[in-house]
Amino acid sequence: MNKIILGLGLLIILTIFSCTSKQTIDEKFNGMYRLDKFESFDSVSGKWTTDKWRGKYADGFIQYDGKGHMSVHLYPIDYKDFDTNKNIDSLDHESLKELTRFYQSNFVYFANYKIINDSTIEHHRISATEPKNFGTTLTRSFEFINDTLILTAHENLDNKKMRLRWVKL
User: Fold this and answer.
1) Which of 60, 89, 116, 165 can bridge 74 by disulfide, Cβ–Cβ 3.0-4.6 Å?
2) Which residues have CB under 8 Å from 14's CB, separation 6+?
3) How does DSSP assign 138-155, residue by residue?
């Protein structure tokens, strides 16, 4: 009888530890991350180096809810310092062009995501700041290193292989 009780106790303990020991990929994604840096791959040196986005250094956030939804917001470092309090009717042609470039530098989308395998994720965009991006899908390779999420684009951006490093908040 003692052997049966001991066996059942051991089975319960093993079951508890096996259920709580491994975090799922969805659980790893779940949360908010701040952009650490853009990197481009230098095929000559074989190394990743810090890169600029749209000619400037960028800041931003990405968030995954762990239930298949995500959002991202990228913007130039000086984005929050731009003066938007001007009356649009009083702006000259050059000022209107500057304002348009300013709003184009802001990149946002909301998406449903799907984890394809242990290293690939798809973002199925449902809305975006750029109308042509509605309904499109982005495929990214992913890697977790401690609290850092690295997303590598499958397509070239500005004719470069690019990746973004995100640090969990």
Assistant:
1) 60
2) none
3) EEEEEEEETTEEEEEESS
Q: What type of residue is 69? A: H
Residue found under tokens 């309090």:
85
> If residue 47 lies in a helix (H) or strand (E), which one and from where to where?
strand 47-51
| Residue 145: both structure tokens together | 């290193």
Q: What is the DSSP letter of 11?
A: H
Q: Which two tokens stand for residue 82?
A: 């731009």
pTM: 0.82
- Tokens found for residue 141: 């390779």
At 20-31, the pLDDT tens digits run: 446 788 899 999
Classify residue 4 by burial, with Cβ atoms within 10 Å: 0-12, 13-18, 19+: exposed
End-to-end Cα spacing for the chain: 52
Give percent above pLDDT 70 in the chain: 86
